[in-house]
Specification:
This protein folds into two domains: about 5-85, Rossmann fold (3-Layer(aba) Sandwich), CATH 3.40.50.20; about 85-205, 3 Solenoid (UDP N-Acetylglucosamine Acyltransferase, domain 1), CATH 2.160.10.10. The chain contains two helices and 25 strands. It has helices spanning about 10-20, 70-80, and strands spanning about 5, 25-30, 40, 45-50, 60-65, 85, 85-90, 95, 100, 105, 110, 115-120, 125, 130, 135, 140, 145-150, 155, 160, 165, 170, 175-180, 185, 190-195, 200-205. The N and C termini lie far apart (about 40 Å).
Length: about 210
């Protein structure tokens, strides 16, 4: 089996290598731009070089373990020749009807229910749940312990914070930030930052 490589050797990289291990997929190494990590190892796996060196592999095959959507998107677009893997931890549950996009990750304890769609390079983090008929856009991140009710739409690049909840039928726009522990009861426009229970808009971020 061809080795898999992980871009990003920080905390989320550790989580991703653990998921790959449960899938029986060998990790050949990490790539990371942090000079303090280069030449060392993470979880016993070598950090081989800066991110640009991923493109020097004869067969660049891997996953991007970077939480921030804009960096994840820029990195994916930098390597159009790469094969981006779908990573699903063995302890998660993803219904057979779910469409999982290239490069997306479902971490330990994650649940994705029937007829949901995950875009490219999404992160469904530890213990997060996605109920039926949801649509999670490219590069979105549903953080640990967050929960989406049925038929929720999450736009490209949005961040659903730790322990937050989104009730059924809500549409969350692109590049939205939902603060940790928030409860979202109504639609949220693009670029909004919402916090609280019920969640309220506190500002808009520029793209």
């Amino acid at each position: 089996m061809t080795d898999v490589y992980i871009i990003g050797a920080s905390g989320h990289g550790k989580v991703v290598q653990a998921a790959l291990r449960t899938m029986g997929m060998p990790v050949g190494g990490f790539f990371d731009d942090d000079p303090g990590l280069l030449g060392g190892s993470v979880c016993g796996i070598p950090v081989l070089g800066p991110v640009r060196d991923f493109g020097l592999l004869e067969r660049p095959r891997g996953v991007i373990a970077i939480g921030k959507a804009t960096i994840r998107q820029r990195t994916a677009q930098s390597f159009p020749q790469a094969e981006w893997l779908r990573v699903v931890h063995a302890s998660s549950w993803v219904d057979i009807s779910v469409d999982v996009g290239d490069g997306s990750i479902v971490c330990a304890g994650g649940v994705v229910q029937p007829d949901s769609v995950l875009g490219r390079h999404c992160i469904i983090n530890t213990g997060a749940t996605i109920d039926h008929d949801c649509r999670v856009g490219d590069y979105a991140h549903v953080c640990p312990g967050a929960h989406l009710g049925g038929n929720v739409h999450v736009g490209t690049g949005s961040w659903i914070g730790i322990g937050s909840q989104v009730i059924q039928g809500v549409a969350i726009g692109a590049n939205v930030t939902v603060g940790a522990g928030s409860t979202v009861l109504r639609d949220v426009p693009d670029n909004a930052v919402v916090v609280g229970s019920p969640a309220r808009i506190v500002r808009y971020d520029r793209c």
